[in-house]
Amino acid sequence: MNRLRTRVHALDRRRRHRSAARALLRVLPEPESWLDVGTGCADFPHTAREFFPYTAFDGIDPTARVEYARRAGRVEEAYAGQVTDPHITSLLRARYDVVTLLRHRSPGAPDPGAELRAALAVLRPGGHLLVEVPGMRSDGVRAYLEAQGCAIVTPAGRFPDLLPPGRRVIARR
User: Fold this and answer.
1) What SS3 state is found at 22?
2) Could you tell me the pLDDT band of residue 159, with boundaries at 50, 70 and 90?
3) Based on the number of CB atoms within 10 Å of its own CB, is 10 exposed (0-12), middle (13-18) or buried (19 or more)?
4) CA 173 to chain CA mean position, Å
5) CA distance linking residue 148 with residue 25, whole number of Å
6) If you ran DSSP here, which 8-state letter would residue 14 be given?
7) How are strands ordered across the β-sheet holding 77-80?
8) CA 121 to CA 129: how far, in whole Å?
9) Most confident of the ranges 4-8, 56-60, 131-135, 148-152
10) How far apart are CA 115 and CA 37, in angstroms?
11) CB 138 within 8 A of CB 130
């Protein structure tokens, strides 16, 4: 039973990752560079590469899993740490066309406000930020991003959004 639950969880995660990649594909078909925050083993970049084969994916994660992801070819550059670290933020400032924050509730997660500020700092002008907010509506995230001068982008298309309303935000800086 535990194996089945693990397999179902992995399939659900892959389905959500595909949905997020498709949502961004509708607003930005060919980004040059992409940073996945909290990437772990880079499951999201691995899935998104199916839709963005020419995009350079980088990952940042506080665990050693990000180095595994680099060795496995899932990300090109691997950064061990938090995007909120001032050294990392200054190193990556205005470098990426897309930054993803696919958040899951975890005890060691950084302050969401600080994480959004850092994500905006590493985003190029005109770049896109994709945020998924777990277990709550994203009204606060939307309001914060609009206050920072970002435009909220609502992708239209034939693919339905698989998340409940209000949990995914795509913003253009």
Assistant:
1) helix
2) very low
3) exposed
4) 15
5) 24
6) H
7) 77-80, 56-61, 33-37, 96-102, 123-132, 168-172, 151-153
8) 11
9) 56-60
10) 9
11) no
pLDDT for 157 equals: 44
Contact call for residues 78 and 45 (beta carbons, < 8 A): no
> Length of the chain in residues, anyone?
173
**25: its two tokens:** 């594909």
Going from the C-alpha of 66 to that of each of 51, 80, 101, the distances in angstroms are 21, 7, 15
CA atoms within 13 A on the CB side of 39: 35
Instruction: For residue 31, give both structure tokens.
Output: 């980004």
CA distances from 68 to 63, 72, 81 (A): 10, 6, 14
d(CA 139, CA 173): 18
Closest C-alpha to 139, from 110, 104, 168: 168
Distance CA 84, CA 116 (A): 9
What secondary structure does DSSP assign to 58-96, as a single string? EEEESSTHHHHHHHTTS-SEEEES-TTSHHHHHHHTT-E
